[in-house]
Amino acid sequence: xxxxxxxxxxxxxxxxxxxxxxxxxxxxxxxxxxxxxxxxxxxxxxxxxxxxxxxxxxxxxxxxxxxxxxxxxxxxxxxxxxxxxxxxxxxxxxxxxxxxxxxxxxxxxxxxxxxxxxxxxxxxxxxxxxxxxxxxxxxxxxxxxxxxxxxxxxxxxxxxxxxxxxxxx
Length: 169
Known about the structure:
Layout: H1 2-10, H2 29-34, H3 48-58, H4 79-104, H5 113-125, H6 131-154, H7 162-168
Helix pairs in contact: 3-4, 4-6, 5-6
């Protein structure tokens, strides 16, 4: 449900997609190598695919999102594993936003509040409206936010407003 929401948000126009998760990404090995592959500075498997898609688009490559393509990809998670995974996604998101902010020489910019409000309301739009599902969506976003701020607190100074130091030199 979460990835479907993310895909509908970032890929509303299928011919001009902005993000495809690496578990559902196809391109030639030659292009992957030419683009430098995934950024190995990401310590976790979290957001390196977002950064790669961003790099592809900045190089003038077009991402196509094929709604009918189905990939079965699942991790057997305990409740703690679920929270840890979303915490790590938040840490990766912070690193991705730092990299993008440096490239753009701009402040870190996350999605608008409406993105998160709509995500939290998503279970209400489904046939299977359960309190458990709503709670899991809420907890996934709390863990993600905590991971994002943990990433911010523990990042090296190079992630913080480097564009401002560059302009003053």
